Amino acid sequence: MSFKVAERRIWDATTTLEALGAAEVALWHWEPEADRLRINGAARALGLSPLAPECSSAAFRALALPQDRAQAEELLRVREAGAEIVVRLRMRSGGVCIWRGVWLEEGLRAAGVIAPEVKFAASGKDELTGLLDRRSFIARARERLTHDGVHELVVADLDRLRRLNEALGHERADLVLAALGSRLAAAFPEGSILGRIGEDEFAVLCEPKGYEPAELLRTALEQPLRIAGFDIHPTLTIGAVSAEGGEDAPEAAELVRRAELAVEAAAANGRGSAAAYGRSMETDGLSRLALEADLRGAIGRGEIIPYFQPVVRLSTGALSGFEALARWIHPRRGLLPPDEFLPLIEEMGLMAELGEHMMRSAGKQLAAWRRSHPAVGALTVSVNLSTGEIDRPGLVHDVAQVLAENGLPRGALKLEVTESDIMRDPERAAVILKALREAGAGLALDDFGTGFSSLSYLTRLPFDTLKIDRYFVRTMGGNAGSAKIVRSVVKLGQDLDLEVVAEGVENAEMASALQKLGCDYGQGFGYAPALSPQEAEVYLNEAYVDGAAPVKARG
């Protein structure tokens, strides 16, 4: 037997896979045109068995934790031949893995190796913040949990980090993260274990005595920052879990997973929310895959429709218009809230299709109301442009077409754009916004006050409306910083002759406070949640018969 023959027998496919499994390593191979990701080796040990031996890109995205979806997209992104890939991913059914590889042929395929993060980690400290990195945090937490007593683990996710990176650039965004790390280190008593366990995640393990860890963390980190001339107002989504220490204490990595699951649950309630871990948060990833399958074609089948939330003039209580918000009427599961399907739509690349559908459907409904209710006068409808949709080819043409086909006057259809979309390329955005304005659209700057951008561009862009982010409206009664921001935005709108809409109005007290500041309009659960077209028409009729839209006395 020749050496080459013996060599082939030794390294046959079975032996290779056994070796990879023993080393807790897997190989991956990605073919974009076939939408096929292959995984061989220690798939089970790495928590990747639902994806092995092959899966689609949608299944891969679904298994990644929501906080790591951007990294999953980075792995799938087509690059030139020879480009290297290094991605850190956390999966729902496993731990943290490093995916390394290279593009072998431009746009055709990429391949590489997957291994647990601990096999690559070389330092116990996060270089940016000086806090413990994920591996060291878990190691220290594992040791601490052997001690008797009640321990609490809090994980905080910095909201809108992606928008921060887009608006400020990575270097300035890193300054924000470094500052938050310093604040965290100064806030907690000696003996607390502090870490930066993800790109946008901070964690604390402590034995709370005389303080509430989640509130202490929020108080320390949600203070305004000024970075390179930009005012930053950080908000955090927080998850917490408690555990008894000692012999029966849970594994530290499992405790971190539970806290991150609580963060995910809190995020469903909006920015700045918090949640404590509960068994009900455990979900089956297969149900998510089934939902993705149902989502394909749902827009074309007419299952996703606009619901309408009233916008009210604060000075008179008169109904001014509606904001159109997407809702999915699932054939088996009924009405699904946007948090359950909008992230999937974005991952599947369907946001542009949804945006056009919402604009056309909302415009058609508005025209019907204006024809059947002459008293509605200047009733408007607002539609959100999704991230990147401002650059969609045909957007200006579609706006003009919707207005013309439905006989709507200029300004009746309002488009809401986020700050991050503008700041990615302000000069290009100015050209597109001007064209949209000339086509007849009203323009609103959404979530204004989040503080990721300079105010100078407002004087150069053709907006007619500012919308104050609901977080600041909701907290202005008990947070001096939020109250100052609301006052400043209202005054800015007055100075620039822009209408100001406050989101998140929960009761008459909020509405009255906003009116006293000079805010023009309000919307929120205090008036009504998003209503079906039939419910919105009833609301419209009642508002005009009564002369004012009703507002709850208390939230």
Explain what you see.
The protein is α/β, with parallel strands linked by helices. The chain folds into 3 domains: 104 residues, Beta-Lactamase, CATH 3.30.450.310; 146 residues, Alpha-Beta Plaits (2-Layer Sandwich); 241 residues, EAL domain (TIM Barrel, Alpha-Beta Barrel). Helix content is 39%, strand content 24%. The protein is built from 19 helices and 22 strands. The strands form 4 sheets. Strands 14-15-17-18-19-20-21-22 form an 8-stranded mixed beta barrel, surrounded by 5 helices. Strands 3-2-1-6-5-4 form a 6-stranded antiparallel β-sheet. β17, α13 and β18 form a beta-alpha-beta unit. α3 crosses α10, α7 crosses α8 and α13 runs parallel beside α15. The longest helix has 22 residues. The radius of gyration is 26 Å and the shape is globular.
CATH architecture classification name of the largest domain: Alpha-Beta Barrel
Overall number of strands: 22
Whole-angstrom Rg? 26 Å
CATH homolog superfamily of the largest domain: EAL domain
Class computed from helices, strands and strand pairing: alpha/beta
Beta-strand percentage range? 15-25%
Helix amount, in percent? Answer: 25-40%
Shape: globular
Domains (count): 3
Largest beta sheet: strand ordering: 14-15-17-18-19-20-21-22
Tally of DSSP helical segments: 19
Low-confidence stretches: 1-11
Summed over residues and divided by their number, the pLDDT gives a mean of 84
Question: What brief labels describe this structure?
Answer:
single chain; 555 residues; Beta-Lactamase; Alpha-Beta Plaits; TIM Barrel; 3 domains; six-stranded antiparallel beta sheet; 22 strands; 39% helix; disordered N terminus; GGDEF_dom; cyclic-guanylate-specific phosphodiesterase activity; Rev_trsase/Diguanyl_cyclase; PdeA-like_PAS; Bifunctional diguanylate cyclase/phosphodiesterase
